[in-house]
Write a sequence for this structure.
């Protein structure tokens, strides 16, 4: 009995809500349907345009990703080449500095011997 009463309550409530909606609608059904049709077409067009824009953005992001990957690869290669060339360029200077440091250390040791300073 309770289910039947509940169902009957839903039906009566639905009919009452429908009647209240029809009586309080600001426009006629024909005008409302026309408005809804125009709005739905407008929304569908906007969604279509948005989809096309998203596809374009996706395409551009893929392109930028590939270009960035290539640029980073080129940059890494160029930097490795530059560092290698720099090492080759400074090698003679590095060797000369090491010789001078060795000569200075030898001179200090000779000077300490001459002055009879105990070595550390």
């Amino acid at each position: 009995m309770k289910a039947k009463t509940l169902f009957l309550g839903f039906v009566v409530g639905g009919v009452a809500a429908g009647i209240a909606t029809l009586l309080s609608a600001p426009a006629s059904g024909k005008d409302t349907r026309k408005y809804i049709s125009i709005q739905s077409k407008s929304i569908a067009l906007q969604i279509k345009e948005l989809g096309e824009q998203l596809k374009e953005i996706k395409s551009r992001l893929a392109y930028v990703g590939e270009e960035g990957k290539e640029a980073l690869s080129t940059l890494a290669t160029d930097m490795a080449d530059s560092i290698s060339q720099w090492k080759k360029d400074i090698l003679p200077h590095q060797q000369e500095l090491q010789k001078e440091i060795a000569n200075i250390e030898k001179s200090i040791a000779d000077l300490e011997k001459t002055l009879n300073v105990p070595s550390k």
